[in-house]
Design brief:
heterodimer, A: mainly beta, globular, B: mainly alpha, 8 helices
């Protein structure tokens, strides 16, 4: 992989020593992050713990008490301004909570510090406005104006903005200490993922897979605000994997492989697991013959230097836009009598996977969506789609499930382009050994158009142009809906499943109270029994929920919090059309 | 208000639009009845609908050159051969079997759109819009498209600044 290693020696030294530097009691340290589950009153990390479980041991809110859950704090967060192609910013963030203070951004990257300790009023202590040129950034966001969260480091809040900047913010005052321009919207690059902080490094990546980018993962030294390393997700000339781009025209230079969801991290192996987005252009695989590594993959990487340890590609030569950016929960489980560490993934392509964390070999997996038509299943040894033929440069998969240049209109295929599970996070209950997977259900069709080359390759496609080579179409007689499944985390066997009225864009929280929570497009926030998925409680906050719920405690009292606000990638369903946009924090308690 | 094809065609907005198409210079044909200032307001109103309320630019791009991706294969409005009346009908009713949405809230509740109800449209039913539009809004957005987009060549810097209302960086590449 191509990397800048400026300051690499210094970075290695920082890596070795930073965990030993003493910090103030309230500061966020690497030690606290490693032991986040020992602070159940706080929600310290994006996915609750580094393993990506989104599981809380708090149990005051449980199957017996959940009926008394009620709204106790509400707060308008703003960020509804228009920009670029979008009428408003969205709310997709997972809040961070430490000692009764919440840190959360809206879609335009405005960061709020909110004092929740009164239990009544959600009291804004400060707000940091990054001052985005909204038209500039909003015109190259494929799927809305999004920001999925912030992170804590020492006495700073670390945030990102859609226009490609990272900020270190004084946690007490909201003053920006430094900012670093990481991604360049001039190239179609944006940033939407919450940073992953490992020791003194902040790791994030570039979105923009629909705008002709070459994706990357990037580490910032938080002490200096400077880059430590950058690893491209699409290998360059001479690097392993570049041979899987067989066009002979260097199309890998705009090969996609975006990064827009926070990785998971295994401290015992000092490895983080990053989901990688689709190949570009989305719907013209003949433009990019070959497997197109590492698009539609997971990469295991070393955080100190960004070196790739292994990769597993879910959909080689992906013609469907099945990018696999979403989280990869890490679990320790018995498999055939042996204790193993697995990296798991409910993929946008409709299959669930478990992989060996050490080498990425396939352990188990199967279909979790109701309908999956692009492949007949997974090879039990390799985990590749059964139709995958490594001798072919362009993979047909199930014939006519995607457009070709000879036949540009694909037939109905399932799951729908956006998945399956998209970015909305799963949750894992280690006590029940169940993985909770939120999903959209349904089918659509793809229509292809041959992709012209980029201007730097002698063609007409310009930076910031859409680089999709076609479009996704949604027949009216195939309405989308959603589901929540409880899976065996090794095999993917469905233990229980509930049909949801709407595609899920919220994600899941699991708790030791025997409950799982998720939000819905119509504004419902619902608790389900963690074994049966039978509905245990529900409340409607009045506008759509497209963000993950979290839980925390203040003075021993448990709270449930969730943002409600727009994320309408496609037009609202007619039944929700008249519901206005909002931008609200909602907090519940018993 | 009903939206029958004939009634729509007889509306003041149609006169406004027709004047653009026939004359090539906005308001010339209709200025006896409609002051130029009012024409300009209508165009500006239509631009805001194109830009934000109906989000036409998400699929067609800010300059109307058309685009691809999650909004479908949106055609070039700069090169369209549609008449204002046909464009208004397309905005109102969408294009069956494509991703072009309808914008009349009551489209396909009766036969006002291509003589079809929702049931008859079946799987070809155009998608829901970002927001529904009233007849006056459709008139305005059609007026905007014919005044500022249709028949134009490649977009230029001034056009970009005019659309975004300020000198944003995305207009930089268009500077000569």
């Amino acid at each position: 992989m191509s990397k800048h290693r400026s300051g690499g020696v210094i970075a290695a030294a920082l890596w070795a020593t930073s965990a030993m530097v003493p910090a103030l009691a309230a500061d966020m340290t690497f030690e606290r992050a490693l032991n986040a589950d020992k602070e159940p009153q706080n929600w310290l990390l994006h996915h609750k713990n580094f393993q990506g479980h989104r599981y809380s041991t708090l149990n005051e809110i449980n199957a017996a008490s959940v009926g008394k859950l009620h709204l106790t704090q509400v707060l308008a967060l703003g960020g509804l301004e228009s920009g670029g192609r979008y009428a408003n910013g969205n709310l997709e963030a997972t809040p961070i909570v430490d000692d009764g203070m919440m840190y959360v951004p809206n879609g335009w990257g405005e960061v709020y510090a909110i004092d929740l300790t009164s239990g009544r009023k959600a009291d804004i202590k400060w707000k940091m406005d990054p001052g985005i040129d909204r038209a500039w950034a909003g015109d190259v966001a494929c799927c809305g104006v999004n920001n999925r969260g912030v992170a804590l480091w020492k006495d700073k809040v670390i945030s990102i903005s859609l226009d490609g900047r990272m900020f270190a913010i004084n946690r007490a005052t909201g003053e920006v200490v430094w900012e670093r321009k990481i991604a360049d919207p001039a190239l179609g690059e944006t940033i939407t993922a919450a940073p992953l902080i490992l020791r003194d490094l902040a790791i994030t990546g570039s979105a923009g897979g629909e705008f002709g980018i070459r994706g990357w993962i990037d580490a910032t030294d938080l002490n200096t605000g400077k880059q430590v390393w950058r690893t491209y997700t699409i290998p360059g000339k001479g690097e392993p994997g570049n041979e899987t781009w067989k066009d002979g025209k260097d199309h890998w230079m705009h090969g996609g492989g975006s990064v827009w969801v926070t990785a998971t991290y295994d401290s015992s192996a000092d490895t983080f697991y990053q989901g990688i987005g689709n190949a570009g252009p989305d719907y013209d695989p003949e433009y990019r013959p070959g497997d197109n590594k590492w698009a539609a993959s997971v990469l295991a990487l070393s955080p100190a230097d960004g070196k790739i340890k292994w990769g597993f590609q879910y959909t080689p030569n992906d013609p469907y836009d099945f990018d696999e950016i979403s989280e990869h929960p890490i679990i320790d489980v018995a498999v055939n009598g042996s204790q193993r560490k697995l990296v798991t993934h409910a993929a946008r392509n409709g299959f669930y996977y478990s992989l060996d964390a050490v080498n990425g070999s396939f352990v188990g997996g199967r279909q979790y969506v109701d309908r999956l038509t692009w492949s007949k299943g997974l090879d039990p040894k390799t985990g590749k789609p059964l139709e995958y033929d490594p001798t072919l440069d362009v993979q047909p998969y199930v014939v006519n499930s995607h457009p070709t240049r000879a036949n540009p209109k694909g037939a109905l295929k399932c799951p729908v382009t956006s998945g399956g599970k998209n970015w909305e996070p799963a949750a894992y209950n280690p006590d029940l050994n169940l993985m909770y997977v939120p999903s959209a259900e349904g089918c659509n069709m793809l229509e292809g158009k041959p992709q012209p080359d980029f201007v730097d390759q002698g063609g007409t496609a310009k930076p910031r142009d859409r680089f999709t080579a076609g479009s996704a179409n949604y027949p009216a007689d195939e309405p989308l809906y959603g589901s929540l499944s409880a899976l065996d985390p090794v095999t993917g066997e469905i233990k229980s499943k509930v049909k949801l009225q709407w595609p899920n864009w919220s994600g899941v929280l699991a708790t030791a109270g025997g409950l799982v929570f998720t939000g819905h497009m119509d504004g419902e926030i619902t608790a389900y029994d963690s074994k049966t998925l039978k509905e245990a409680w529900s409340f409607n906050v009045g506008c759509g929920i497209m963000a993950p719920p979290i839980t925390y405690a203040i003075n021993g009292k448990q709270y449930l919090a969730v943002l409600a606000g727009p994320h309408w990638l496609r037009p609202k369903p007619a039944a929700l059309k008249d519901q206005g946009a909002c931008s609200m924090l909602n907090v519940f308690t018993l | 208000m009903k939206w029958g094809r004939g009634r729509f065609a007889r509306g003041a907005g149609y006169i406004l639009v027709a004047s653009v198409v026939c004359s090539g210079v906005f308001s010339v044909g209709a200025q006896a009845q409609t002051p130029a200032a009012e024409d300009a307001r209508t165009i500006e109103f239509g631009k805001e609908i194109f830009k934000t309320k109906a989000r036409c630019q998400y699929c067609h791009k800010w300059d109307g050159t058309g685009d691809q991706g999650y909004g479908g294969n949106a055609l070039s409005l700069r090169k369209t051969q549609l008449t204002p009346d046909q464009l208004a009908m397309t905005v109102k009713c969408g294009r069956p079997a494509t991703e072009m949405p309808f914008h009349d809230k009551f489209a396909y509740t009766d036969r006002r759109c291509y003589g079809m109800t929702r049931e008859q449209a079946g799987g070809s039913m155009p998608p829901e819009p970002n927001q529904y539009l009233q007849a006056g809004e459709i008139n305005a957005v059609v007026a905007y498209v014919f005044a500022k987009v249709v028949g134009r060549g490649d977009p230029d810097y001034d056009e970009c600044v005019d659309f975004w209302g300020k000198d944003t960086r995305q207009c930089e590449p268009l500077k000569k």
